[in-house]
């Protein structure tokens, strides 16, 4: 996987069929919409684009079948890590 994976790259590596990033700057409002895995997108993802003034972007992972238990555990851990990172990163527009 590249140093800065896309949302789709990350989802594929976690065992999902595909991933997509939602929320358009400046008023992002990305939602998980019942995706099996979903986390707050940050500049750590390639293709993040412009920063949000309000709201957040989300990376949503989708699949026809649930990933293996190990992948689920890893995905949940990465979700917590990325959300914690996003919470600690100041908004460059402020």
Structure write-up:
It contains 2 helices and 3 strands; from the N terminus they run αβββα. With 94 residues, it is α+β, with helices and mostly antiparallel strands. It has one domain (7-88). It has a 3-stranded antiparallel sheet. The longest helix has 20 residues, at 69-88. The chain is globular. The relative contact order is 0.25.
Q: Give the SSE order as H and E letters.
A: HEEEH
Shape: globular
SS class: alpha+beta
Number of domains: 1
Please report the total strand number as a whole number. Answer: 3
Uncertain segments are: none
Mean pLDDT: 81
| Beta content | 5-15%
Terminal Cα separation, in Å?
32 Å
Rg from Cα: 13 Å
Determine the number of helices (DSSP H or I, runs of at least 4 residues): 2
Strand order within the widest beta sheet: 1-3-2
**Share in helix:** 25-40%
Largest sheet: 3 strands, antiparallel
Provide tags for this entry.
2 helices
List the helices and strands and how they pair.
Layout: H1 7-13, E1 18-22, E2 37-40, E3 58-62, H2 69-88
Antiparallel strand pairs: 1-3, 2-3
Summarize the structure.
The protein is of the alpha+beta class and 94 residues long. Helix content is 29%, strand content 15%. It contains two helices and three strands, in the order αβββα.
């Amino acid at each position: 996987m590249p140093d800065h994976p896309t949302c789709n790259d990350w989802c594929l590596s976690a065992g999902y069929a595909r991933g997509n990033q939602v929320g358009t700057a400046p008023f992002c409002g990305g939602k998980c919409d019942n995706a099996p895995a979903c986390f707050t997108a940050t500049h750590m993802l390639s293709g993040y684009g412009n920063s949000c003034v309000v709201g957040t972007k989300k990376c949503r992972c989708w699949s026809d079948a649930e990933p293996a238990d190990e992948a689920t555990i890893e995905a949940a851990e990465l979700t917590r890590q990325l959300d914690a990172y996003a919470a600690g990163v100041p908004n460059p527009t402020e």
